[in-house]
Amino acid sequence: MNKYYEKSKEYRDRGKKGENKGIPLNLPKLKKVIPNIQKGKYYLISTDSGVGKTKLTNYLFLYTPFFKYMENPSSFDIDINYYTAEMPEEELLAELQAYWLFTKKGILVDTDHIYSQGENKISDKVDKLLDSSECIEMMALFEEKVNIVNEGFGYKYIYKELIKSANKHGKIVWGKEEDGQKGFIESYTEYNPNMFNINILDNFQRLQRTNGESAKQTIDELSRRMDWARQKFNQIWVGLQQINRNTKNLDRYKLEQFFPGPESLKDSENPYHDCQICIVGISPAGLRLKTFDGYKVLHDKESKGLLDRLRPIRVIKNRGGISNKVGYLKFFGECAYFSELPEPEKITREHYNNFFEKYG
Q1: pTM as predicted
Q2: How many domains does the chain have?
């Protein structure tokens, strides 16, 4: 028997049956480059500070899978672990509600208004919708499917948790113990092949360090374990990493090389080398660019620009697929929502005006 051929054929046959589709992305152009959210993948998201890497991650790997599951729970199942030292739980829940309001009710409202912070006040309409049975049921399902961890954690804690998740969703057969330590993993069998165990880390720079380890050592230890877990247990891992603010990046901007590369990643390049897919993003408005690849960015006397609504992204690494492809997204930071923009020549003045309507 040809073991390698049989294994390859098994995966091909699964694909022909439609079993390799993954969780569909809501971005048609992007999913031609990235074939949906696939099990056994390690994704890395990186942008400059304030560009929206957390919101892009939440849109792609938290809200998209959750609401896809909510719409059709018989098609697949999800179990999401969300590790964040960046976003308080109440802020994430308000963002979830803002996303629900925008996508299901056509109301664009930010988290400051939902919590009536400062001079901002929640409207009666929004308040009633958030107290509706529909919203309460949505949030109950979110609580069931998403585990938020926002207290201090390091790579050792996360390693223990990923082993717990593996045991929860399958059977691990360990090799022979040596000197009291578990040996290698002989096999892993999933209980439910349609279960997507998604693990999100926001972000590498917020990991707790132990035993005097450097930031690089801590990041490298966890990244190695994330890569190991996606291989051994078919888990999905999503890591967020900051970009260095240094003279090299300033030189990159001067040369109009706006998208960062692996050399720009803060503290360590190893997450880039470990991951299967790396997506980077920029804010042309943040760079004070008047235009970007044909899109008008800044306002002038004649007409409006996209300002901070424009978010170009680039897939700079894609093992098994196409890389260095650029996508142009419309960004609603109020609710972590993204959609693909038309070609620049197809955007009218009316389009530009509508990008700034508060309710739509």
Answers
A1: 0.93
A2: 1
